[in-house]
Every structure is written in C-alpha cells, then in structure tokens.
Amino acid sequence: MATPIMAKATAVWLCDNTTMTFKQIADFCGLHELEVQGIADGDVATGVKGFDPIANKQLTQEEITKAEENPLHKLKLLHNPASEGEEKRRGPRYTPLSKRQDRPASIYWLVKFHPELSDGQISKLVGTTKPTIQAIRERTHWNINNLDPIDPVALGLCKQTELDAAVQKANAKKAKDGTVMSDDERRKLVSTEQSLGMEPEPKMPAAMAGLETFSLSDPRGEDEEEEEDTRDVSDADSFFNLPDDDKSED
Question: Matching InterPro entries, A to Z (predicted)?
Fold first, then answer.
C-alpha cells in the first residue's frame, strides 16, 4: 500500500486534529500502532511539526469524516500524478558513512572483473562519482597501492540482482554494437550454477605458444645406430696416451 509523503509528520497532524483510532492512522501512514500511540503520548516524534494531508492533497475532509465515524474504515490516499515514480531511486545511491571508506575497493573490483560496465552504471551501483572511477581506472587514485578488490555485494553496497542486471545490460549493449564477447564475458550471461557446471577450456600460456609439437626425441630418428667405439680401453695408459716415465724431460 502506498504511504503519504512525510508519513510521521502526517501521523502527528492526524493525532492532533482527528479522533481516528491509532490503527487507522498507523495503517495509513505505514507505521506501527504502538508508534502512533507514542506520538499521541508525546514520547515519539517530539518536535516534529504536523504535516496537513488535506492541504497537501493527500486526503479529503470527507475521507477523514468517514474514518472518524467508522473505526473499521481504511483511509485511501489520493492519487497524485506528480508523485508517480518517486519510489524509484534516481541518481547515485546514498552510501552510509560507515561504508564510504569501502567504496574505492568495490570500484576497483568492478573495474577489474566487469570492465564492460560504464562509469554511470558503477556510479549508480556503489554511489560514487565519475572522477573517482576514472582515477581508479587510470591508477592515479591517491590510495591505489593499498586497495584490494572487494565484491560490492559482499560489502553491502549493492544487491546481487542489481549487479547482475547492470552486467546483463552492459553485455547486451556491447552485443548490439557488434563487439565480439570473449568466453569469460559470455560465461557472465549464464547463471552461477550453469557457469560452475561448465568444463573449463584448456588454455596454453602465451609463453608456451608454438611449442605444441615440441618433442624430446632425437630428430635424426630412432633407426640410426650410433657409431661403435672400437678403441681398446683395456690398457689405461694407452687410452689416455700417457708419456713413459723413463724419458727425461728436455
């Protein structure tokens, strides 16, 4: 059910200006009944100024009168065309202060493992700016030497479904532009279970290229016989051609 804008301030106004039950106000504002009771007792929303739902075109006086006369009546929020799409997030994601220090590591992970993502997509996923992304891409970030790539999903900066949707969109755009995808990029288009079940393709390191037919065998063939050594080695002196001991030196 849609809730009014400034729900808590609207609940404050309804508690102060109507005789509706706490449950009716809670259901309309999307709050808990005990929270509305706390507002009425002055324990909750202290200092919050009431927000008039009638003046702001969220309720009519007739609807409030019906709710006051019948405790089972549920208030109906007026349709405001200007509020359509407000629930959809626009612009960069808001990142809590406790997680902002993890954003460079998540950007590094996205740049390294998903180079097909654009700066705008990364900005929406983790809530950062394009200059920061560009600095990490070009390795000119002030802390680039101390950064370790960490999955933004593991850090809680985005959801896995949002990351998968962004990757699918980026790959679809690349395919539409006619860019050929590599095997690793094609694997990203299938589910994790399917990707893990696929047999890895054997790849030869670049340094080993051209050595597929390398053999340790003698290229002259095995049919050729080595020449036999017919020298008589029974006499060690004759083998080494040692000089006689009785000859005097010149």
Answer: TrcR
Closest C-alpha among 22, 3, 133 to residue 12: 22
- Give the Cβ contact number of residue 222 at 10 Å: 7
- Pair 184, 203: CB distance under 8 Å: no
* DSSP 8-state class, residue 88: S
Q: Model confidence over 20-75: pLDDT tens digits? A: 999 999 999 888 888 888 888 888 777 788 888 888 888 889 999 999 999 899 88
Whether 55 and 49 have beta carbons less than 8 Å apart is answered as no
Strand, coil or helix: 34: helix
- 136-170 pLDDT per residue, tens: 999 999 988 998 999 888 888 888 888 888 888 88
pLDDT per position as a tens digit, 168-226: 888 888 877 765 555 565 555 544 445 445 555 455 555 555 555 555 555 555 555 55
**Considering only CA atoms, which of 87, 91, 139 is closest in space to residue 112?**
139
Contact 7, 31 (CB under 8 A): yes
Against a cut of 0.90, is the pTM above it? no
* Closest C-alpha to 99, from 146, 156, 163: 156
List the structure tokens of 84: 């359509």
Neighbour-count burial for 46-57, b at 16+ CB within 10 Å, e otherwise: eeeebbebeeee
Query: Is residue 249 pLDDT above 70, yes or no?
Result: no
